[in-house]
Records
---
Amino acid sequence: MVDTVWVEVQQRLRACLLAKDFEAWITPLRATRWIDRELVLEASSGFAAEWVREHHREAIEQALGEVAGAPACVRVVVNRALEVPRAERRPPRRATAETTAATGAVSRPTPAARCTFANFVVGDSNRVAYGAACAVVEHPGTRFNPLFVYGGVGLGKTHLLSAIAEASTARRGAGAVAYLSAENFVNEMIAALRRRQMERFRQRFRGIGTLIVDDIQFLGDKQRSQEEFTHTFNALHDGRKQIVVASDRAPHDLPGIDDTLRSRFAAGLLADVKAPDPVLRRALVARKAAEKGLELPDDVVEHVASDWCANGRELEGVLLRLEAYAMLAERAITLDLVHEALAPYVKVRAERPTLARIVAEVCRQFELTQAELTSSSRAARVSVPRQLAMYLCREHTDEPLNAIGAELGGRDHSTVVHALGAIEQRLQRDAALRDTVTRLRQRLVG
Ligand code: ADP
Ligand code: MG
């Protein structure tokens, strides 16, 4: 709620303040509460708070009154956690996991890169995950332990993990939190093994209160890393420390993960993030556009929300394109401009392959008939292409695993899970198959 209000207020302020004033004073503010007709805004320093009170309070309250439909007031408070040295601004967000891995702690978040609770847009599809994420910050190691967040690409998993990391760090200090990707966990472990510094590696995770690991599916088929991770997991869990994990699928769908670890994950809270519904899509478009300072007419918001917001990542890509196109064309963003700017992409989207199309391409590639591919034959010349077809279906469609299994001759869900793992493994050692996959992908996505 507070977010929606603040986005609306900002949109109005943008229209009435000078752009540079808006950027300098309004953008860095964070709205934290909207209760009893009072909006609480946090500024990063006493000076900034003072300045906003002196120069912009009236404008903010005016806008707030319009948004709320009745007079309302604003209170500006100081939160030094928001303060960030200039040089640190605007690093690519994806670097967070790396930088943190090196220090074992969460580096200070930066405004441009911030993925916080405050700028996470909540809807039906992610409410449980959001609530659980807030809860583990409030009461780590108690109720939802581990918290296992899972779902498709761009649906806000990393955003939520960053928010947990940031909020936990703000409360308990950097030393209490370790936030890294599973890939970094593996890399660091391998480096430690090489240097015979396993003890030091393990030490790093002792004494922390919250362990946050992103993209845990990366541990699939990595025996040694899984053992080590399980070890760390158990030590922390026994000590009632909080563990948060994100994955692209549910524990029982994860290929190549040991059963012990799988059941450890499943024993906690499983919170999925689903594709956004129309209400959330509209809120996301409004929010992301406001963050970028883009003014979008209603029909554009509507169009982008319905056609270009399958997930947060797609939306951000599209807004970037619209912004660039509008700037280069020196035109405002209207519905016409949007159609023009996105025309080349519509084609690609329309051609997103179906299951049937993938099956057909794989048959063509391996000179098999569809009947052969979907038969019960276990001969490698048929079973490998069949598994590969499942793998490509998983990669290029959003179809559930049982639908993929059905398309490939009525196989069940666990057969598909097995196939995905088998292909991933095979790809690591079979260069010819990798080439084939590359060629198939090119054909599939044009
Ligand atoms: P995932 O890790 O699930 O693939 P990310 O967390 O990286 O997805 O999200 C992709 C982008 O979309 C990020 O920039 C993120 O901030 C944005 N995003 C996704 N969902 C939301 C949301 N509910 N509210 C705000 N931003 C979101
Ligand atoms: Mg992610």
---
Amino acid sequence: MNRHRIALIPGDGVGKEVLPAGMAVLRRAGEVTGAFTLETTDLPWSCEYHLRHGRMMPADGLDILADHDAIYLGAVGFPGVPDHVSLWGLLLPIRQGFDLYVNARPIRVLDGIESPLRAGSPQTVDMLCIRENSEGEYAGVGGRSHVGTPHDVALQTSVYTRHGVERVARYAFERARERRGGLASATKSNALQYTAVLWDEVVADVGRDYPDVEVTRYLVDALAARFVSHPASLDVVLASNLYADILTDLGAAIQGSMGVAASANLDPERRRPSMFEPVHGSAPDIAGQGVANPMGAIWSGQMMLEHLGEHEAAGLVMRALETVAREGPRTRDIGGSASTQEVTEAICRALDVA
Ligand code: GGG
């Protein structure tokens, strides 16, 4: 039996509700398959931790995480700590520190969950967004001067490198080859004549190694419109850090709810633990009520099982999620009235019969 060491960071708000839900499903999948156990380390790193210790995680936080096979994270951010402090204190240092340069985000309408798109169905919405996760607009390069004066100035520099674009593009081409063979590259090279032109050149260069993949270059604004008007034409979507962050919230809305959307921050070379987190944030407006949708966290956990090589269990969890999406119960964000716990228990039951 395999034993996987998982670092658990529930974080803030609904993260503290959906992560235990995800763990209950993953542990049940381990029991049903008899293939693995999960040994967990609970890490209370969060805005609450920041209020007590003045930082989001301890100084040796990355060393602590490095000793695990994967990281499972809930949500980051809560009133009382500025959002840029919480994001740059926890999530982004892990992504950058461990060079988790791919952020993979499936965008699928599950049967039974109503998409706001008239044409939104499991047949028409099935994309995989590959987000460049280590540089671009989130490189953290810039500065402020004359703060608080009339001459206050802020500079935030995008960093695009051939190395950074090439490796994430190659990952995206590989996924496109395994899927339906289409790759849409998001750019803005008409306006951004340095960074986005380099992006286009590198994507074209990598594409020469994948003659079986059909690459289409879209200006990101046109691509956003295409998500709504022609979602069935999109297979793998490759985009920079910021563009993909925005496009995948649009994708989540098309999926029917932010609560359903999943993501994996991957080190494809497996030098460091990869990190799995729902796309949604901490949702302070519903935190503590037990009504958050656990499906995005559970789907992210399913991606973690795939990454850990537990393919049978990952398949079971995906089928159980699909069953409960189709048959209910559902949380209120997708038209039901069930609690987080009721949905989680239903997914665990669906695992038993799968
Ligand atoms: N589930 C993780 C979370 O709290 N995400 C909120 C967020 O703002 N993330 C920004 C990003 O993905 O770059």
---
Amino acid sequence: MSTLRVEQLDDRVVVTLRRPEARNAINAAMIGELHDVCASLEQQPRLLLITGDGGTFAAGADIGELRERGRDQALQGINSRLFDRIAKLPLPTVAAVDGYALGGGAELTYACDVRLASPSAVFGNPEPGLGILAAAGACWRLRELVGGSVAKQVLLAGRRLDADEALRFGLVTEVVPAGDLLKRAHALLDRMARSGPLALRLTKLVADGAGHPLTDDLAQAILFESEDKRVRMDAFLAGGRS
Ligand code: COA
């Protein structure tokens, strides 16, 4: 991989965005490599942690490439299809954000299930300043995450959210010193990994809004039949706590 560092662990994959010459801006090569990571996680579901190298998460889509794209490339949804694929990965995804997460970089974090930040994290969508739309999820995911009023301030008024504001608006779950960011992210993933994997997978599917309440009932029907449920509930009733 030329734009990512990828660590494959038993229960999780850790991806570090790495284009130091361009503040980890997301170019076509990075898109392709992130699709490869998705393919591997779809085949063998595991948790995903995404972070950025060198004190930046990602400074957006690569502006040099964006400048050359026309209508046909926009209609291909180059970034939005990748971020949708990430959002739909079977098991939870976490973004650990140190420094700038702007434009497509911010949208990549919005597509993850949970975000943690260092004090230097900055989220923003400056796309209209470049004469384009934030078309890879910000226009609807950010509203879901922080509400319409704050989302419009970010999208229409160029407001950047620093780490404390991101915490206050619920965009990130916690703010931790940069040196502890990955450790805290792994602790969160450890907590997730202790859940029943099928239960976690189905919870994500249902929580992401597929047809309530039918899907909830279907998911619960599968889980009620599982050996994992019996073992976990027997352990609870016998006095074990996780
Ligand atoms: N696409 C392509 N290259 C980018 C980039 C992007 N989104 N963001 C930064 N870079 C490049 C810069 O052109 C520069 O390259 P150079 O060293 O060859 O001149 C290098 O990364 C370092 O960027 P620089 O602006 O000097 O770093 P900085 O620390 O002063 O500022 C940012 C960091 C993130 C505030 C600033 O780079 C920035 O505003 N980037 C664009 C953000 C944006 O509009 N994103 C939305 C894109 S849709």
